Amino acid sequence: MKFIKSKKGLAMLAALVVVGASAFGAYAYLTSNGSGSGTALTGTNSTVIHLVGTVTDGLVPGSFEPISFKAYNDSTTSTGYVAGVSLGTVSDPGGTAGCISYLAAHQADFSLTDTSDGAAPITEGNAVPANTTAVTAVSLTNGGRVHWANSATVDQTPCIGDTLTIGLTST
Length: 171
Known about the structure:
single chain, five-stranded antiparallel sheet, 22% helix
């Protein structure tokens, strides 16, 4: 009893209380349940890759025409990447009402496939440096074939001779 009343005893008792309280607090912290929330400010992805496809020969119903690709990147700081190329929407921006109507109803008549294995999407795997333009565009490694299916039941002549825009999507 005399020891507990001494300065050493009181110091030891205080130390034991602190250690015990800390151990209990740590146990409660590690075993308790709860939830919370937080906030974070996000940045913007400013890398925009533009794809340009060139079909050398005229595309007509029933044909498979070679298409080559180039890409450029609007970003001033970030390199972009094109893993593959897929067919987007085929349109006729300055075309006749008949062609525009045909395209609205028959997008499935068009396909884009890889020249090596006939698969879609076309596999590329190209880095596109920042600050490239349509003039300095990077030629992509692989080309493809664009196909316009021939139809015996649908009149495709309204689009013959028009300049079609073949939309491309980067993956």
